[in-house]
Write a structure and sequence with these properties.
The chain has six helices and no strands. It has two domains: about 10-90, no CATH class; about 110-200, no CATH class. It has about 200 residues and is mainly α. It comes from Lactococcus garvieae.
Length: about 200
């Protein structure tokens, strides 16, 4: 298959910025400034290659993701610049204290995410034991950092699904033909349950 050649700039904006050097000797943001991107500069072949690589459907998708990535890069670059300026004004002890606090914050964030992952596994197991299938999106609604709140949310979700199943059984036994068995024919019923959860304000 013939390799598609892209402009050097185009895909750079889709990735994280690379460390850069400041030739003037000033404070560096740590990232090289990407050239301005213009969608119309792409050839049809290059545009098709970008769409294929990132699973995009049309030109607007390409333009949108590039603008989003560039905006994120600009915010990150500005944050790094401010961080460098802050450090430049600190003495040795202040820098060490600042770095210690940053490390503690990173560790706390890692532990928070790990705790949520473990909570999500437990919630998924609890629902599976009750023969209730779910999705990651539903678990994200049910799970919070508070174990008691998570347990209560899982219980309410399970009760909702069970009640829907009972209603389905009643309709079936009275001669009506329900459109689907709750939580038993794919993701549609899960999506409905997720909508119900949002309506009942079961959120983190």
């Amino acid at each position: 298959m013939k390799n598609k050649q892209l402009l050097p700039l185009n895909l750079q904006l889709f990735a994280d910025g690379e460390p850069g050097n400041n030739p003037d000797g000033g404070i560096s943001s740590g990232q090289a400034t990407p050239p301005e991107f213009k969608l119309e500069n792409l050839t049809d072949e290059q545009l098709a290659a970008v769409k294929e690589k990132f699973g995009l459907k049309d030109d607007n998708d390409v333009d949108s993701i590039v603008k989003s990535k560039r905006s994120r890069w600009q915010k990150e670059a500005e944050a790094e610049k401010q961080e460098a300026e802050k450090l430049a004004k600190m003495n040795k002890d202040e820098k060490e204290e600042h770095e210690r606090k940053k490390l503690e914050a990173r560790i706390a964030e890692y532990e928070r995410k790990e705790n949520l992952r473990e909570m999500s596994k437990v919630a998924g197991t609890m629902l599976k034991e009750q023969e209730i299938r779910t999705t990651e999106a539903v678990l994200n609604i049910l799970v919070s950092e508070d174990a008691d709140k998570t347990k209560a949310a899982v219980k309410e979700f399970a009760d909702y699904i069970k009640e829907e199943r009972k209603l389905w059984e009643v309709e079936r036994n009275t001669g009506k033909t329900p459109n689907k068995v709750p939580n038993n024919t794919g993701t549609s019923s899960i999506a409905e349950a997720q909508k119900a959860l949002n309506e009942h304000r079961i959120i983190k």
